[in-house]
């Protein structure tokens, strides 16, 4: 049994047809019947012939999706259909591939499906499975973390049971009181350890916004709890321990904090030498990057230069750290340093090719190191014991800041499209009518409206009718309100990136606006 996601068009345009007729459909209208094409190579040749202007990447990508649709998806497999409403439908495949003659541009490539449930709320699906469903491919398999078994549970109307390797303790901590009780129940030498992601979920939040951090800090203070390291530092997947920081000393006269920081394997980078915890403020530290918390590959002092070069070629690395037996940095070997060493001595050793490496502390301000990473291409990361614990490259920064810019770009285009269509379709006096008091006189166009004002404006039947959009007003206004809340959340700093799943509402609204107002 396997589980697949089959989209009903780029913007869900075939959604109703799929649900009403019990079918899975993919377009690729330039292709004929694929029934007799039994290998990837045959399908690839057909795709290349049907779409001669497409490059090798696109041809290969489409070939993989079509091969899966025709040959790999089997009867009794489960299928997930993401819906424009934000919900999902789940069904079971009942038959093999079919080809139908196209009528009025309808898709030709079909699989029959029995829809078992058509309105699953995404809130009943765990974030990791939601992320897996977020691919932009039209046809792809859900294969990670027992996805097929979890989709089967959804098909029975049950909530997603979650990953088999999920932290059961974390899943049971559904409110702060339960967290407090769990810490109190445990022995001092067996503290509660969980990821920052799971820790935040106890308060029902996904990212470390200032308001959420302040609430959590107050709750911890009231309960006499403390996290080590502070939950405000490290990546969202970093692990922390929750301790009874205010508990009385034990028989030896030491606190739980001191006993833990003397023995724990959890990084101690945020605990001062006197056992006091640093102020838990939200800032953007080096440790907020995933790669800063992931041990890089390395070579030991005394290894051969040949082994370093082999590893660099195999992994596609530009440099490798050279560490001593205690895990501390002794230098870096790079292709440039290797070249220089060989120019002096064709039989140069690893030591001769090792140069000084850039090294940042986990708690350093990331912005202070951007110039260094830009210039040298990397910076190694160390913990408080001066042991290497991560590596940040220019590529890591590109991905990180690209991820952070994308939500703002999406929201900006949504606002621009709303302004344009409102100015074009709704008279200024009607726009001003939804603005209370004297502020209305200062409105000269839709550009003067707040994001929230668009919802009030388009609730008015006369204004909605002026748009002449063939879409459901209630769904649109609900999507607009969800996007408004998302936009507001972006305005509050958080060191945690926005996930693909959190972007879905904004992406869906933008695609709808592009469809209704296709002008550039």
Provide key terms for this protein.
CBS-domain; single chain; 4 domains; 520 residues; globular; 20 helices; 16 strands; alpha+beta; 4-stranded mixed sheet; ph1033 like fold; 6-stranded mixed sheet; 16% strand
Helix content, binned percent: 40-55%
* Gyration radius, rounded: 28 Å
As laid out across the biggest beta sheet, the strand order is: 2-5-4-3-1-6
Distance from first to last alpha carbon:
45 Å
Strand content: 15-25%
CATH architecture of the largest domain: Roll
**How does the overall form come out from the CA principal axes?**
globular
Uncertain segments: 265-281
Structural class determined from secondary elements: alpha+beta
Q: What profile does the largest beta sheet have? A: 6 strands, mixed
Rounded mean pLDDT is 83
| Count of discrete alpha- or pi-helical segments spanning 4 or more residues | 20
Number of separate domains: 4
* DSSP strand tally: 16
What top-tier CATH class of the largest domain fits best?
Alpha Beta
CATH fold name of the largest domain: ph1033 like fold
Can you give a write-up of this model?
- The chain has 520 residues and is α+β, with helices and mostly antiparallel strands.
- It folds into four domains: 153 residues, ph1033 like fold, CATH 3.10.590; 115 residues, no CATH class; 97 residues, CBS-domain (Roll), CATH 3.10.580; 120 residues, no CATH class.
- The protein is 41% helix and 16% strand.
- The protein is built from 20 helices and 16 strands.
- α19 packs across α20.
- The longest helix is centred in the last third of the chain and has 32 residues.
